[in-house]
Design goal:
This protein has 355 residues and is an alpha/beta fold. It has two domains: 266 residues, no CATH class; 71 residues, no CATH class. The protein contains 15 helices and nine strands. The strands form three sheets. The chain has a five-stranded mixed β-sheet with strand order 3-4-5-6-9, with helices on both faces. It has a two-stranded antiparallel sheet with strand order 1-2. The longest helix has 25 residues. The radius of gyration is 21 Å and the shape is globular.
Length: 355
Amino acid sequence: MRKNGTFPKAYKIGDAPFYKHIIMDNQPNHQDEYDSPWKEGIELYFKELMEFFFPKIAREIDWDKGYEFLDKELQSVVRDAEIGRRHADKLVKVWSLEGEAFSVMIHIEVQSDKDAAFAQRMYIYNYRIFDNRHLPVTSLAILADENDLWRPQTYSVEQWGCKIHFIFPMIKLNDYNKNIDGLLRETNPFAIITAAHLKTKATKKDTQSRYSWRWKITTALYESGFSKQDILNIYRLIDWLMMLPEDLTKRFTEDLIKYEEEKKMPYIMSAERIGKEKGLQQGIQHGMLTEAREMVLEALDARFSKDVPEDVYEKVQALNNRILLKKLLRSAAQSEDIDSFKKVLQEIHSQQPEE
């Protein structure tokens, strides 16, 4: 069970955090990464997310009892519902102040365009989770797209007197666009993450502007009174969201080193140097393996959906060799049925080197 603010174990290298640097290429078809930073942010700061976006609900939760992320259960719900993998969805069990356990699903919508099936999907998630747990379920939506008019909050269907009317709380990130400076003065991590997300979208075709906004958002971390650990955590998410071309990344690093020296706050750059010395390559390898496993699992969901046994997912997650995962991805795309894939999976598992 996770308490808020702890650093995920997978992103520790020795005593220093691993910073996932992604170099933004200059091709016009480059796609920024939104899902993974948001998912990571929720895992780090779930309580703060609730307090920032859904304060009334946050006041009804007994935070002293902690909370539990139910990723494996959500994965099962998604497969059973046959609606594909949703990378930024989180299912969290919390306790109300009345003492009754209930599940909360946080759904982060990172799609750039209007999705006509979104509200229906929220409803499907809700009843599937209730069917599994028989506990009250609160479905929450954070819409991170750029279509200001698209604000789904209900799902209704009626047939011959039988009617369903499902309402779910929703917030729209675009609503915060008019007060970026105010966000940067706040001490809630999700104020900073929201500002970074909005300015990442606003600077998709303007790397110089992105540099300027990334600098302003990063330096705001030092000015807003965040702890050293929070600065390290949040900066890593900013770095992940606000990707820059290689030349600007180098310039940004140099400028940040000077800034930290002037402030006598050597947090980010010193941690990066320690991380490199203690095995940055190990962290990079971890990120590449995670992405490779996700690609295999996505291919399985797309092809076989409900026919994929749980032990297959576990065996894929246990693979730690990118070459073998690449072979497995090809098999996921070409296998005629799940049994054929399982034979290949078993063979590949036997080839994995012992650690």
